Amino acid sequence: MATLIFDIETSALPIDQFDEAQQEYLFREANKLPDPVAKHARKGELERQLNLYPLTARVVCIAMLNAESQRGQVLFTADDYEQEEMRAGPVEYVACMDEAELLTAFWDVARHYDSVVTFNGRGFDVPFIYLRSALLNVPITRKDWLGYRYQTEPHCDLAEQLTFYCVSGRDGAAKKFNLDFYCKAFGIESPKAQGVCGLDVNRLMATGECRQVAEYCLRDVQATVLLYQIWKERLSGIR
Question: Which of 7, 65, 168, 208 is most buried, taking the most CB atoms under 10 A from its CB?
């Protein structure tokens, strides 16, 4: 049974893409603050959070690996788009003209897999790409990744598994940590070890360093593959 492991990177849409009413809605909380310094600080926080929502951000990269063969693709958008594909070992880097082309290519790959593994994909990656695909009218080939939560087929979300479905709440023994923390705890090299993290994506995309975003996204997936193997060997089947 073929298993796909993937991760996405997102980047906020330009503020001027939103009309006056939309901007008022997005920054309403900051605009209510009487203190100018506090207002400015809160507006900055809200701007950074725009990366997290499919109505205010776009998918700029999707990295994918076959869990069994370790072969895969990294799809990424690039302003200096070229049709040539670049290969680094078993992984192919594919520059896409725009987000619609990227999502179309992703769904074309996804339809060939029986199951999918993510880290926090149920809470972020999957609903994000579902909504972005719908907004761009890109056909979704797998609509079953947000089904019954308490199962690992067809979607195994490691963030759910390593917290045992948040059995102990936010601060109990099974508290949820980020991927970086789990990797370090289990002796896996952190995707952030080379100095790039999700907070850098906007800046890297703005300066045309799209390949760095693609390489960081792939490191996330490579780490997720190793974490999945550990979970499968040591924790799978716990009820």
Answer: 7
